[in-house]
Amino acid sequence: MVLDKFGSGLKDTLKKIVGLGVIDKEAVEGIVRDIQRTLIQSDVDVHLVFELSQNIKNKILKEKPPAGLTLKEYFIKTLYDEIVNLLGREKGKLELKPQKILLIGLFGSGKTTTCGKLALWFKKRGLSPAMVACDTHRPAAKEQLKQIGEKIGVYVYDEGKTPEDIAKNALKKAKESILIFDSAGRDALDSELANELKNLGKIIQPDEVLLVIPADIGQAARKQADEFDRLVGITGLVVTKLDGTAKGGGALAASSVSGSKVKFIGVGERPDDIEEYDPQRFVSRLIGYGDIHGLLEKAKEAGAEKTAKKILEGEFTMNEFYEQLGSLQKMGSLSKIMDMIPGMSSGLAKKLPANFLDVQEDKMKRWKYVIDSMTPEERENPDIIKQSRIERIARGSGTKQADVRELLKTYKQIKKMIS
Ligand SMILES: Nc1nc2c(ncn2[C@@H]2O[C@H](COP(=O)(O)OP(=O)(O)OP(=O)(O)O)[C@@H](O)[C@H]2O)c(=O)[nH]1
Ligand SMILES: [Mg+2]
C-alpha cells in the first residue's frame, strides 16, 4: 500500500475534526499536534511541519470561514489544502510527443525499472517507445533492461562499449518516436558520475532529464534533487518505492520544495506500477474520498446529526442555531428535527414563526454574520444580549439592528417551543 500509515493518520485526524464539538484554540492545537505526529513519523522536515501548523492555526483561529462553509468544514478543507500543498503544488506532466528521456540517479534508486515503466506508459498511450541501455558499469545491467523490454514488448538498443557509444548508435538507428535512456548509478554524485551524465547529455540532447529518487530516503530527497540539478541539470523527478516505505510523505514533501517537480511516482515493482503525479488526486485517494467535496458532505451530515442530538437533549444555544442555519437546506428544516422529538411532532410546524420555514437564503447569510459577531459568551447565553450589545453586533456584522432583533426573537421562540 502507498503511504498507508500517512494516509490512515490523516484520515483519523480528519475524522476527529468531524467529531469536534467547539472549535476553540485548544481543539485546534490538539488537531495540529495530531497531524504533526503523522508528518514527523513520515520523515517530513520539521520546518515544513511547523509552517503547515502555523498556517492551519492562523486560518482557523484568526480568519473567518469563507461564505458557505461552517468553521468545521473550513477546518477540514484547510487541513486538506495544506496537505496537498505540502506534497506538491502542481501536477507533473510529460507531454505525449516524440522525445528523448534520460533517467539518472544513484545506485538502486529504480532507474532501470522506471525505464520499463515509462516505456510501457507511452506504449499504452499509442506512442512507439524504445529503451537504450547506457549502463556499462554493472555487468548485468543490459541484461536486466532487455528482460524488461521483452516483458513489455519494447525494443532495447545496447550496441557499443561505452555509454556514449551506445547512445550514439541508438540515436543513429532508432525509428521509434520515444527513446528512454537508462544510465549507471553511483554511491554518490561524485565528479565521475557528474561528468559521465554531462557527456551523455551532450550526445543525447534529451528533452527530459529525470532524476529517479527512492522514497525511502525521506526528507534527504530535497538535497539530492537540488544537487543533481546544480551539477547535471534535471527537468523533473520520479519518486519510486512509495509502496514500501514509511518515509514517503517526507520524500514527497521534500521533493516539492526542491527546485524540481515530481512528474511520476513508482508504486510497485511491476512495469505498470507507475502514475503521473497529481498531488490533489493523490491526497484524495489517501484519505479515501473521491474529492474534497465528498468529505465536506460528510462533515455537513455529521454536523447536522450532532446538532439534532444536542437539540433533542435540550441544548439549544446560538451555536446549535448557527449550525442549523448552515445545514438548513441539507436537512430540510428545523421542523424536521422537531418532528423527531417524541410527542411533539404534530402541529409543531404550525406554531413556528410564520416565516421561519422559508427563511430566505440571504437572510440566513445575514443571520450567520450576526452570530459570527457575537462573543462565545453571548452565543452560549443569548439572554445577556441587550441594547448596547445589539448595537455592537449589528455594527460588527454589517447588518441592521432590526436583523439582530429578529434573529434573537426567532431564536427565543424556537427555544421556548423546544424546552
Ligand atoms: N517496491 C518497489 N520496488 C521498486 C520500485 N522501483 C524499483 N524497485 C525495485 O528496486 C530495485 C532496484 O531497481 P532498479 O531499477 O534496478 O534500480 P537502478 O536505479 O536501475 O539500480 P542500479 O542500476 O544498480 O543503479 C529493484 O529490486 C526494483 O524491483 C517501486 O516503485 N516499488
Ligand atoms: Mg539500473
| Structural class by secondary-structure content | alpha/beta
* Helix coverage percent: 55-70%
Shape: elongated
Query: What hetero molecules are in the model?
Result: guanosine-5'-triphosphate, magnesium ion
- Residues in β-strands, percent: 5-15%
- Kindly give the count of domains: 3
The largest sheet is: 8 strands, mixed
Output the strand order for the largest sheet.
3-2-4-1-5-6-7-8
Query: Which CATH class of the largest domain applies here?
Result: Alpha Beta
Could you provide a short overview of the structure?
This protein is of the alpha/beta class. The radius of gyration is 29 Å and the shape is elongated. The structure holds guanosine-5'-triphosphate (GTP) and magnesium ion (MG).
Polypeptide structure, described:
By secondary structure, this protein is an alpha/beta fold. Mean pLDDT is 87; it is low at 329-333 and 340-349. The chain contains 20 helices and 8 strands. It has an 8-stranded mixed beta sheet, with helices on both faces. The chain has 3 domains: 4-87, Four Helix Bundle (Hemerythrin (Met), subunit A), CATH 1.20.120; 99-285, 3-Layer(aba) Sandwich (Rossmann fold), CATH 3.40.50.300; 294-418, 434 Repressor (Amino-terminal Domain) (Orthogonal Bundle), CATH 1.10.260. The longest helix has 21 residues, at 292-312. Helix 5 runs parallel beside helix 6. The site of magnesium ion has 5 residues, from helix 5.
Question: What brief labels describe this structure?
Answer:
419 residues, alpha/beta, Four Helix Bundle (Hemerythrin (Met), subunit A), Rossmann fold, 434 Repressor (Amino-terminal Domain), eight-stranded mixed sheet, 20 helices, 8 strands, binds guanosine-5'-triphosphate, binds magnesium ion
